[in-house]
Design brief:
The chain is about 0% helix and about 55% strand. By secondary structure, it is mainly beta.
Length: about 80
């Protein structure tokens, strides 16, 4: 499966920026870091991947025994 990254030009226009490949099955959830530098995704292939958006590459991979379908994120200010 491929993830396509688009850059917002203005309110109604977007420009294709890059494409990330790595998951073998459907991608269920994804979230950008606050600074949009990283993207985290989870998939039916039982993996969670961390991507560097600027470098357009995968930087980390976590394989889960039971699989995943949602990502829970906490920021620095969460208690």
């Amino acid at each position: 499966m491929k993830i396509k990254i688009w850059e917002k030009i203005n309110k109604n226009q977007f420009k294709f920026k890059s494409e990330l490949s790595g998951h073998q099955m459907w991608i269920w959830d994804c979230h950008f870091s606050i600074d949009s530098e990283y993207l985290v995704t989870c998939s039916s292939d039982k993996s969670i991947k961390l991507w560097s958006v600027s470098e357009e590459k995968q930087v980390s991979n976590l394989v889960c025994v039971r699989g995943v379908n949602k990502i829970i994120l906490c920021d620095e200010e969460s208690e």
